[in-house]
Amino acid sequence: MSRRYDLVVVGGGPAGLAAAALGPQYGMSTLLLDEQHAVGGQVYRNVMSSPFTNPQTLGDDYLQGVALIEAFRRSAATQVQVASVFAVTKTEDGACEIALTVGGEGGRRTETVIAEAVILATGAQERPFAIPGWTIPGVMTVGAAQLLLKTSGIVPSGRLVLAGTGPLLWLLASQYLRVGVEIDALLDTTPRGRYAEAATHALGFLTSDYFARGFRLLREVRSHVKVIEHVTALAAGGDDRLASVRYEVNDTTHELAADVLLLHQGIVPNLNLSNAIGCAQQWNDLQKCWEPTVDAWGGTSVPNVFIAGDGASVAGAEAAEACGRLVALAVANALGRIDARARDEAAAEPRRALERATRGRRFFDTLYRPAHYFRIPRGDTVVCRCEQVSAREIVEAVAAGCLGPNQMKAYLRCGMGPCQGHMCGLTVTEIIARERKLPPSAIGYCRQRFPVKPVTLGELAAMPTTEAARQVVDRNGAH
Amino acid sequence: MFRRLPDDLLVVSPEVAIVIDGRPCTARVGDSVAAAMLAAGRVACRTMAMTGAARGPYCMMGVCFDCLVVIDGRQDQQGCLVPVADGMEIETQRGARHPRMKEQK
């Protein structure tokens, strides 16, 4: 890794891989920084070294990652793994200075890199699913369970319950069936009437191949698993480990004994880095989440900072890959490597791919939009896992005059723990919005600060300093 | 509760010897610390500083920070991001170290 690059891409998922592979083709020295031990992001995690003897075990969509990673490896881009970017600031000449830690346990060191332009491809995370008992060991996300499957072939044993809504829930269920994992129940929280509502948005999509594939998946799961529809309340029970799952259907409460509960209600952009950099963001009222504000080329409100893929707007891996290509072309144009005409010509193919990949999005966004009673909890349900703050405490703070998520940090510390609001930020915004009878867009999100990843004071102190920075603190030199 | 799928489905990667809370265990190359703990029957990996309540891995991708453990004497390590290595010593992270902290809440 050298000190200066034309383009630095943060994140090695589909968007980041596609963007980084294209950079060198337009004469840009390109560096890809990825937090994991191998590229692929979460969606193609471990695809080059899958633990399964039969590569088809996890399905064809997963294997799409192989071609993408091979194309990236053939490119002249430099790659650094186990690299956590914790700050991006603008230098006086308009470039971006990136601060990161490289390497793991013991051997970790801090570095800085200068980039003319940065593409954030930091992807998405699962939406918080704050139900009573979601902090009990044995309760985890569907995505977490899928990562255990992808990386180690580890699966739940004992009584297993899946709960929530969204494509990933059904995908994991089908993958489990294929490897012989028994699912005791799938509690579907998709609200009543959603299929009809979604269908009106996407009549054309219903005849597409995407829809047929999704439909087959649902049918396969339904024929092997007890699916309970229209679940309106969920609660996990147990002390040091999960013992039971309570759920409500038609105003009647039922209880299941359970050893593992896997929760999922969709995916939302990972905002922490873009927000800390100062990129403007907006509320997406269909997906019920914040998104960084980007133009058609991934440009943000901060010059030379671009965003590609699910980190800008959740649309899945195929869309992210096309988006990564488009944004790399935009950077090549911004840095003067190609003119606007050449950019637009090269963009025609990825634009078509993006359109293809997002054709059914409105259908899915409507069908799987999580119900308000699962997004906006009440009572003693823990909202902020790190600081153990309940919905009731947040409601009381609003009643006492707290206006928004930033003030809420001072009132209750929620959003200030190690996860930095990843697990509570959306919920806090929506609870305050409900209590103040205002739209979430008027409430805002908790402002993120550098470092967005934990670093020790020792690591910060070991960072290279500039002469200007030294003079700021050198009193003898200044007088 | 978690288990590893049977060997006929998996490319069997080499075993590594690790120690979890003083108890010798085996894991496989490629496992994260959090995955190895789950496979060894440990659903919880730490206790909360404020309440002493047990917590276990939740997101497995580095965002929730609930899988914090002590690895080779270094605390606050994200178990889901650290791969196991032969001879690694992993300890449950005890959050409430000051006895009075637990009583206050």
Instruction: Tell me the structural class of chain A.
Output: alpha/beta
- Determine the number of helices of chain B (DSSP H or I, runs of at least 4 residues): 2
Strand order of the largest sheet of chain B: 3-2-8-6-7
Oligomer state of the chains in this structure? heterodimer
Summarize the helices and strands and which ones pair or pack.
The complex is a heterodimer of chains A (479) and B (105).
Chain A lengths: L3 E7 L3 H9 L7 E4 L26 H15 L3 E3 L2 E8 L5 E7 L6 E12 L3 E3 L12 E3 H11 L1 E3 L3 E6 L1 H12 L6 E4 L5 H8 L7 H14 L4 E2 L4 E6 L3 E8 L2 E6 L2 E6 L1 E3 L2 H6 L3 E4 L4 E4 L12 E3 L9 H18 L5 H18 L3 H7 L4 H4 L6 E3 L4 E2 H9 L5 H8 L12 H12 L3 H4 L13 H5 L5 H7 L1 H4 L1
Parallel strand pairs in A: 1-2, 1-6, 2-3, 6-20, 8-16, 10-11, 10-16, 11-12
Antiparallel strand pairs in A: 4-5, 5-6, 7-17, 13-14, 14-15, 18-19, 21-22
Helix pairs in contact in A: 1-2, 1-8, 4-6, 5-10, 8-9, 12-14
Chain B lengths: L1 E3 L10 E6 L2 E6 L4 H7 L6 E2 L6 E2 L12 E4 L2 E5 L10 E4 L6 H6 L1
Parallel strand pairs in B: 2-8
Antiparallel strand pairs in B: 2-3, 4-5, 6-7, 6-8
What's this, in brief?
The complex is a heterodimer of chains A (479) and B (105). By secondary structure, chain A is of the alpha/beta class.
Descriptive overview:
The complex is a heterodimer of chains A (479) and B (105). With 479 residues, chain A is an alpha/beta fold. Chain A contains 18 helices and 22 strands. Chain A folds into 3 domains: 211 residues, FAD/NAD(P)-binding domain (3-Layer(bba) Sandwich), CATH 3.50.50.60; 137 residues, FAD/NAD(P)-binding domain (3-Layer(bba) Sandwich); 68 residues, BFD-like [2Fe-2S]-binding domain (Arc Repressor Mutant, subunit A). In chain A, the strands form 6 sheets. In chain A, strands 1, 2, 3, 4, 5, 6 and 20 form a 7-stranded mixed β-sheet that branches. Chain A has a 5-stranded parallel β-sheet with strand order 8-16-10-11-12. In chain A, strand 21 and strand 22 form a beta hairpin. In chain B, a hairpin with a 2-residue loop joins strand 2 and strand 3. Chain B is built from 2 helices and 8 strands, in the order βββαβββββα. Chain B is of the alpha+beta class and 105 residues long. Chain B has a single domain, classed as 2Fe-2S iron-sulphur cluster binding domain, sarcosine oxidase, alpha subunit, N-terminal domain (Ubiquitin-like (UB roll)). Classes of the chains: A alpha/beta (479), B alpha+beta (105). At the A-B interface, strand 8, helix 3 and strand 9 of A face strand 1, helix 1, strand 5 and strand 7 of B. Strand 9 of chain A pairs antiparallel with strand 1 of chain B.
